[in-house]
Write a structure and sequence with these properties.
The chain is α+β, with helices and mostly antiparallel strands. The protein contains 2 helices and 8 strands. The strands form 2 sheets. The chain has a 5-stranded antiparallel sheet, with no helix packed on it. The chain has a 3-stranded antiparallel sheet with strand order 3-4-5, covered by helices on one side. It is globular and about 60 Å long. The relative contact order is 0.18.
């Protein structure tokens, strides 16, 4: 019996574990320095929890920012809960890790993008693409070396 190693799924699991580890550290110690996160997630994911008015306004995906004001960050095994400020109104959210489409920390030009797509063989997620150029410009004028890693060359 032949079996293949599912590197794409293993990469997704590892990168979602990285997000979980980062969020656990932020929950315990707060955001260090200029770090902040842009997290885009699928609002229609069956386990995502957000106010009806938010899901109506963002029916496919939504990007939230963790920076100056957030509270009640609770990091779990399958996702995280957080309260964010929307127009001076606190709103609780629950975001499953597998609903995350992008995770970007522009302060250090780091970003993860979880691409999905259908192939002839299966409908699994494609391997992750780590892109430093997804981040917005850093406010200081210090030059930064960005590195883009693409896994396309390893696909058959």
């Amino acid at each position: 019996m032949s079996r293949d190693i599912d590197y794409g799924n293993l990469m997704h699991t590892a990168m979602r574990g990285l997000i979980k580890t980062v969020l656990q550290d932020v929950a315990q110690h707060g955001l260090p320095g200029a770090h902040h996160f842009f997290i885009t997630f699928d609002t229609s994911h069956p386990d995502a929890e957000l106010a009806d008015w938010l899901s109506d306004r963002y029916p496919g995906e939504m990007t939230v920012v963790m920076q100056h004001w957030f509270e009640n960050l609770d990091v779990g095994d399958d996702g995280f809960a957080i309260t964010l400020n929307f127009g001076d109104a606190p709103e609780p959210l629950y975001i499953p890790y597998d609903a995350i489409k992008t995770f970007v920390d522009p302060s250090v030009e780091f970003g993860l993008r979880f691409e999905t797509g259908e192939s002839e063989e299966d409908e699994e997620d494609k391997p992750i693409v780590v892109e430093a150029d997804m981040a917005e410009e850093v406010e200081d004028d210090t030059p930064h070396d960005a590195e883009v890693v693409s896994l396309d060359s390893f696909r058959k």
